[in-house]
Amino acid sequence: MVVAQSEASKAATAYFRTARPLPLLVTILGLGYFAWVVFWPQSIPYQSLGPLGLFTQYLVDHHHPLLHNGYWLAWLIHVGESLYAMVLCKSKGITNARAQLLWFLQTFLFGIASLSILIAYKPKHPKKT
Protein backbone atom coordinates (compact mmCIF):
# COMPACT_ATOMS: atom_id res chain seq x y z
CA MET A 1 0.00 0.00 0.00
CA VAL A 2 2.79 2.41 0.90
CA VAL A 3 4.71 1.47 -2.27
CA ALA A 4 1.66 2.18 -4.46
CA GLN A 5 1.19 5.62 -2.91
CA SER A 6 4.88 6.37 -3.30
CA GLU A 7 4.83 5.43 -7.01
CA ALA A 8 1.67 7.47 -7.57
CA SER A 9 3.17 10.55 -5.94
CA LYS A 10 6.41 10.07 -7.92
CA ALA A 11 4.39 9.96 -11.16
CA ALA A 12 2.52 13.11 -10.17
CA THR A 13 5.75 15.01 -9.53
CA ALA A 14 6.99 14.10 -13.03
CA TYR A 15 3.70 14.72 -14.92
CA PHE A 16 4.13 15.79 -18.54
CA ARG A 17 1.92 15.48 -21.60
CA THR A 18 2.64 16.65 -25.11
CA ALA A 19 0.09 18.91 -26.71
CA ARG A 20 -2.24 17.62 -29.41
CA PRO A 21 -0.86 17.71 -32.97
CA LEU A 22 -3.42 20.10 -34.53
CA PRO A 23 -2.83 23.00 -32.10
CA LEU A 24 0.93 22.44 -32.43
CA LEU A 25 0.69 22.57 -36.21
CA VAL A 26 -1.44 25.73 -36.15
CA THR A 27 1.07 27.43 -33.84
CA ILE A 28 4.07 26.39 -35.94
CA LEU A 29 2.46 27.51 -39.19
CA GLY A 30 1.17 30.76 -37.69
CA LEU A 31 4.46 31.82 -36.13
CA GLY A 32 6.37 30.61 -39.18
CA TYR A 33 4.21 32.67 -41.52
CA PHE A 34 4.46 35.64 -39.15
CA ALA A 35 8.28 35.39 -39.19
CA TRP A 36 8.28 35.09 -42.99
CA VAL A 37 6.13 38.22 -43.30
CA VAL A 38 8.24 40.23 -40.85
CA PHE A 39 11.76 39.24 -41.95
CA TRP A 40 11.45 38.22 -45.63
CA PRO A 41 8.38 40.01 -47.05
CA GLN A 42 9.96 40.36 -50.52
CA SER A 43 10.00 36.57 -50.97
CA ILE A 44 6.27 35.97 -50.32
CA PRO A 45 4.21 34.99 -53.40
CA TYR A 46 1.29 37.27 -52.49
CA GLN A 47 -0.78 36.56 -55.63
CA SER A 48 -0.57 32.81 -55.04
CA LEU A 49 -2.05 33.06 -51.55
CA GLY A 50 -5.43 34.48 -52.56
CA PRO A 51 -7.15 36.71 -50.00
CA LEU A 52 -4.51 35.93 -47.37
CA GLY A 53 -1.82 37.16 -49.75
CA LEU A 54 -3.66 40.39 -50.52
CA PHE A 55 -4.23 41.07 -46.83
CA THR A 56 -0.62 40.24 -45.99
CA GLN A 57 0.67 42.52 -48.76
CA TYR A 58 -1.50 45.37 -47.45
CA LEU A 59 -0.13 44.86 -43.93
CA VAL A 60 3.47 44.70 -45.17
CA ASP A 61 3.05 47.82 -47.33
CA HIS A 62 1.19 49.95 -44.78
CA HIS A 63 1.87 48.54 -41.31
CA HIS A 64 5.26 46.81 -41.33
CA PRO A 65 6.45 48.38 -38.01
CA LEU A 66 3.24 47.13 -36.38
CA LEU A 67 3.88 43.63 -37.75
CA HIS A 68 7.46 43.71 -36.49
CA ASN A 69 6.42 44.81 -33.01
CA GLY A 70 3.56 42.29 -32.99
CA TYR A 71 5.95 39.48 -33.83
CA TRP A 72 8.20 40.24 -30.87
CA LEU A 73 5.15 40.77 -28.65
CA ALA A 74 3.96 37.26 -29.57
CA TRP A 75 7.28 35.79 -28.43
CA LEU A 76 7.20 37.90 -25.27
CA ILE A 77 3.77 36.47 -24.52
CA HIS A 78 5.18 32.97 -25.01
CA VAL A 79 7.93 33.77 -22.49
CA GLY A 80 5.27 34.92 -20.02
CA GLU A 81 3.26 31.76 -20.59
CA SER A 82 6.39 29.67 -20.01
CA LEU A 83 7.11 31.40 -16.72
CA TYR A 84 3.49 30.91 -15.68
CA ALA A 85 3.86 27.22 -16.57
CA MET A 86 6.71 27.03 -14.03
CA VAL A 87 4.48 28.60 -11.37
CA LEU A 88 1.72 26.11 -12.22
CA CYS A 89 4.16 23.20 -12.04
CA LYS A 90 5.12 24.15 -8.49
CA SER A 91 1.53 24.77 -7.40
CA LYS A 92 0.39 21.42 -8.82
CA GLY A 93 3.26 19.49 -7.24
CA ILE A 94 5.28 18.85 -10.39
CA THR A 95 8.75 19.04 -8.88
CA ASN A 96 10.70 16.83 -11.27
CA ALA A 97 13.28 19.09 -12.99
CA ARG A 98 13.00 17.28 -16.33
CA ALA A 99 9.21 17.57 -16.36
CA GLN A 100 9.43 21.27 -15.48
CA LEU A 101 11.95 21.85 -18.28
CA LEU A 102 9.69 20.05 -20.75
CA TRP A 103 6.70 22.16 -19.70
CA PHE A 104 8.78 25.33 -20.01
CA LEU A 105 10.09 24.48 -23.49
CA GLN A 106 6.80 23.18 -24.84
CA THR A 107 4.93 26.22 -23.57
CA PHE A 108 7.58 28.58 -24.94
CA LEU A 109 7.34 27.03 -28.39
CA PHE A 110 3.59 26.34 -28.56
CA GLY A 111 2.01 28.74 -26.06
CA ILE A 112 -1.55 28.16 -24.96
CA ALA A 113 -1.71 24.83 -26.81
CA SER A 114 0.60 23.51 -24.10
CA LEU A 115 -0.39 25.72 -21.20
CA SER A 116 -4.06 24.71 -21.42
CA ILE A 117 -3.09 21.09 -20.70
CA LEU A 118 -1.18 22.11 -17.59
CA ILE A 119 -4.02 24.37 -16.43
CA ALA A 120 -6.51 21.49 -16.82
CA TYR A 121 -4.30 19.02 -14.92
CA LYS A 122 -5.79 18.10 -11.55
CA PRO A 123 -3.24 16.21 -9.47
CA LYS A 124 -4.60 13.40 -7.33
CA HIS A 125 -3.79 13.91 -3.70
CA PRO A 126 -3.28 10.63 -1.83
CA LYS A 127 -5.77 9.94 0.94
CA LYS A 128 -4.33 10.25 4.42
CA THR A 129 -5.50 7.54 6.81
Task: Give a concise summary.
The protein has 129 residues and is mainly α. It is 74% helix and 0% strand.
What are the key terms here?
single chain, disordered N terminus, 5 helices, 129 residues, 74% helix, mainly alpha
Largest sheet: none
Give the number of DSSP strands: 0
User: Roughly how many Å is the radius of gyration?
Assistant: 20 Å
Order of helices and strands: HHHHH
- As a percent range, the share of strand residues is under 5%
What's the topology here?
Layout: H1 2-13, H2 21-39, H3 51-91, H4 97-110, H5 112-120
Report on this structure.
With 129 residues, the protein is mainly alpha-helical. It contains 5 helices and no strands. The longest helix has 41 residues, at 51-91. The protein is elongated, with a radius of gyration of 20 Å. The model is unreliable at 1-5 (pLDDT under 50).
